Amino acid sequence: MPDILDTIIDRRKRDLAELGPTFGLDLPLRRERPVVPFLKERGAILEIKRASPSKGDIAPNLDVAGLCAQYRRAGAQAVSVLTEPHFFKGSLLDLLAATRSGAATGEAPCGNGFAASQQSSGIVASGHQASDTAASGDQTREFQGPLAFLRKDFLLTVDEIEVSYRCGADAVLLIARILDLDLLVAMAKKAHELGIQALVEVRTREDVEKLTILSQTVPVLAGVNARDLATFSIDPLIPAAMIGRLPVPAVYESGIRSPAMARYAAQLGYQGILVGEEAARNPETTGDLVAAFLDAGPDRTSRFWQNLAERRERHENGRPLVKICGLTRVTDALSAAEKGADLLGFIFAESKRRASAELVREVHSKFASAPTRPLLVGVITELQSSLAHEALALCSEGLLDVIQWHGDPLLNSPLLDRLPHYRVVSVGDREDIGLVQSLLTGGEVRLLLDTRVEGRSGGTGMMIRSELLDELLQRIPDLSSNGLWLAGGLGPDTIGPVIERYTPELIDASSRLESEPGIKDEEKLRAFFNAITGNTNGVY
Asked: Which domains does the chain have, with CATH numbers?
């Protein structure tokens, strides 16, 4: 598809040449409000956003002042204002309306459903106060200090920094991808001279290199965009891969559509979240998003997703990640790892391939001195079973890296929320496509897709029908670009065509690699990995 980012930048260059950095608007000659520190503590940024190139109109008739007041009550520390006029239908006038609103100073306007709550139950976070009244009816955390404002746009000149300052912005977004290093440095220095914050958006290693050099010159914040600006696809693994490489605190941008995803951003260790489309479409839900982020923090979940993201990057030849499941012998685990398995699966359920805690401990010890090792997966089917609890205990101990759950995909469990995990969705008909879509929107980082067979749980050893998988990828484009995990019926004779047709990110194989249940066949393992290597196409 065409690179929409290039189109946006070309149009902006024409506007700057014809209209200048004010875009022909009558703007203040000097700033009207004091500069507010931008995201000095953990917090949320909620966005004024009217439209987008990928979704069209989002909230074309939004009330800027009213939204700022509502965002304050939801607990936001800052408001992002999208000012790009052609593709996002924003304006510098929106920025002025926001910075001039009562919400900017904490004097939120009454009426129109935006009256600030007068009830509180005590301080719950720095700068935040719990409020019993909210648009959603849930407890929210009204921010008590003055709001900070981010001008979010495709800024290309130093003069635009000064214009942003005059319009009341406390921070400006600088997109590393579209700015060469010298210009990026000059724009960040100008922001620093004016006393406002530069939020530098990064997504690639090249972007991080620019950021690292820049951070040695002026203090900046980073923003990691889960969305590819060229294709608008969203990949939550990008922020996981990037967080450990950043020299400065960072904001998680794009794709925050649920409390689960907000919690994920906190678990990764991000200083803040920037919520755009979801906030503009459903401002009444923003309190839940902010609370989920503020209530969570870095934990073992981040370690798993970071490790997985790094493994994906190491497969530079385009090879998918490989999980070998149903292991019952140490020798088979070591053989699979030697041939290139990225994950090893151990089943803790009633099965011919049932594993034991002793097996996991022994396999884990075999990799204790290795510089890298496969990630160890505990597979469970019934959350309340003694076998599942055994796997959960091993994961809590750090002997298993993640839990793979074959239970009800709609069930939320505090047991799982405390541990790294991903869910399996069994796909058997078109209704299951909607379920997959709903779960991804709800905050699942990845889903393992298997074949649904009535009366059976766990792996089935059968492939998802091709026409069903084709429709699923058509309806959920993000899966086809970066997130397809496949299980069921994968072996030396079937994996080649699957990779060629679907370019999965991860493949999960078990029964077709066995001489008997639970016993892996050395020749089948070798043929399987040879088939994978022989069918790469450079996607990853």
From this structure: 4-23+37-221 (3.20.20.70), 307-533 (3.20.20.70)
